[in-house]
Amino acid sequence: MNYNKKIFLTVSFVLTILLTGCSSSSTDDHLNMDHSQMQMGGKMIETTAVWNPNPAVPVANSKVTIGLTVLDSSNKVMKDFDINHEKKVHMILISRDLNVFQHLHPMQSADGSFSAETILPQSGDYRLIADYIPKGGMQMPKMDWWDDPNVPNDPTILTADQVYDHTVDGLRVKLTIPFAKSKENIPLTFRFSDAASGDDVTNLEPYLGAVGHVVIVNPSLSVYLHTHPLDGATTGPEATFEVTFPESGVYKLWGQFQRSGKVIVVPFVVNIP
Ligand SMILES: [Cu+2]
After folding, report:
1. CA 137–ligand 1 middle distance (angstroms)
2. Model pTM?
3. How far is the CA of 214 from the centre of ligand 1 (A)?
4. 268: domain range?
5. pLDDT band for position 264 (50/70/90)?
6. 170 and 133 in one domain?
């Protein structure tokens, strides 16, 4: 695991991000394939993520299959990965307008390729993100577009929430960012209460090996951050995550928390000066 290690991620034309904690990031904007490299502790394993979504263009309300093959530096299929939060590969789908967020867990076939099935609530472009750790290497998320060539690639305008206080499925979540600042490792503290009773929620359950997962993107979906609580054993009513926003701006984040066996996804739009 890469807990408490510092990760330097350098990509072709974007910036370098420094972040701390059990987290991963990517700022790659390549299309179709990417060859970004991450360095941590001197160990670097280059991989290429090759996506094979079916159908080729995203469609709403019917089953779609997202295929993924990870190739090593000699273009051989990579089959071995370190288990990261109970899975070899985490697949994240985010619509270009940032309204849809899905965190999928693909199955691996004997040939080493992965695939996940899902149903999308809307058509249009999606960002596909594969988050994995090559065996013995470091976490290196890869991103690509699943593009509908018939729809315009309008830039997404995000407006930060007036108050960081949202209720989903009876779980009220307040987010506090005591000193919002880019380029520094800062805490995000979530506080959980029962929306009906107002009581603190202290029975959050581990989901994929953490009491919570927070995925953060910028409006253009060129930045992807994924972080976990500092205190992995907490069950509420608070969980604090640390993250480094690479530059000032508005970001959308989704917290994933589990209560009574149900995974609850809580979105926030935050402004980072
Ligand atoms: Cu996670």
Report:
1. 18
2. 0.85
3. 6
4. 165-272
5. very high
6. no
